[in-house]
Design goal:
single chain, 354 residues, mainly alpha, Elongation Factor Tu (Ef-tu), domain 3, two-stranded antiparallel sheet, 44% helix, 3% strand
Length: 354
């Protein structure tokens, strides 16, 4: 019927939503994608819709290339319920039913990657729960999955959630090039990574650290100026260690290797990591300090049965939100909409006294 009450995905809206939201556009692109080698069916990408069948057919026939088109499968929409954020733990276990772990659209998300990310964490924690072991909870500074799940359990969800990199406050730490270094130890610990793969990552980590130390202890002198001029670089007026030299925007690791070669050649992945860590060292260190400050709040737990209404001096709105979401840590509490820094200060004082 086209009468959909729910809010659709923001980043892949239906054609009827696009007509309203982008009314100023003169046209909208559709892509005709063959369904396979052995069928004449074509999927109309960009034209997803839940309009009545006769309206869909009339719309398609209004396109010159599709004036003789026939519909084999009508477009449709599915409205689904989801579990409110205040009913899910950071482990993806429901608060109301012990041992029930949820993942995907039922948690209010949209997208394949989001569903897969939740699926692996829910599966890991379900297995750990059966074995009586401590759950795996990824922090916001450890992984984008950590950002995704933390948002799901601390924020009001009023439309299907998609994870964008802009949602992460520690993007300099959550780089594609260091994903194996960040997460392999955790994967190995829970049994998802074999020993050979884990040892290969640790070997890479060791090579990177040793090379960074070597560069810091290796000095370049003005006697290298002739070679620097060949690369169009400014001459050295005094000695500088190789790590500082690599931090210059115009300097590459290949230049360092030509001037002071490493006794043990590095893999291309390790070379990239060395260059990134060297060039962004100041910014990375600043974010690490921010993480350490925030970690004190993340590690401060809050009992499940904590009585927020007993806190004198906390705003009523904050008490209601905290009572509803029941955050597991002070860090989670600080990210709940409607809870401000003053409320967190009062909470910390109360926790300290009790």
């Amino acid at each position: 019927t086209g009468l959909i009450e729910g809010i659709g995905p923001r980043y892949c809206p239906s054609i009827e939503d696009k007509v309203v939201r982008f009314a100023h556009k003169e046209s909208h692109q559709l892509f005709l994608e063959p369904e396979g080698w052995h069928t004449t069916e074509v999927y109309v990408q960009g034209g997803n819709t839940s309009l009545p069948e006769d309206v869909q057919l009339a719309m398609l026939k209004s396109i010159p290339a599709l004036r003789e088109v026939e519909i084999t499968r009508v477009g449709y929409a599915v409205e689904y319920d989801y579990v409110p954020p205040n009913q899910i733990r950071a482990t993806l276990e429901t608060k109301l039913i012990e041992g029930l772990f949820l993942a995907g659209q039922i948690n209010g998300t949209s997208g394949y990657e989001e569903a897969a990310a939740q699926g692996i964490i829910a599966g890991i924690n379900a297995a750990l729960a059966v074995r009586g072991e401590k759950p795996l909870i990824l922090r916001r500074d450890q992984a984008y999955i950590g950002v995704l799940i933390d948002d799901l359990v601390t924020k009001e969800i009023d439309e299907p959630y998609r994870l964008m990199t802009s949602r992460a406050e520690y993007r300099l730490l959550l780089r594609q090039d260091n994903a194996d270094l960040r997460l392999s130890p955790l994967g190995y610990k829970v049994g998802l990574l074999d020993r050979a793969r884990y040892e290969a990552v640790e070997k890479k980590r060791k090579a990177i650290n040793e090379e960074l130390e070597r560069l810091e202890d290796t000095w370049l002198k003005p006697s290298e100026n002739d070679r620097l001029s060949q690369w169009g670089l400014d001459p050295l007026e005094e000695g500088v260690n190789a790590l500082q030299f690599l931090r210059r925007p115009e300097t590459t690791y290949a230049m360092i290797e030509a001037l002071v070669p490493s006794p043990q050649p590095l893999s291309p992945e390790a070379i990239q990591e060395v260059a990134v860590v060297a060039k962004y060292a100041g910014y990375i260190e600043r974010q690490r300090r921010e993480v350490e400050r925030a970690k004190r709040l993340e590690e401060r737990g809050i009992p499940d049965d904590f009585d927020y209404e007993a806190i004198v001096g906390m705003r009523k709105e904050a008490q209601e939100k905290l009572k509803r979401f029941r955050p597991a840590t002070v860090g989670q509490a600080s990210r709940i909409q409607g809870v401000n820094p003053a409320d967190i200060s009062v909470l910390l004082v109360y926790l300290g006294r009790h």
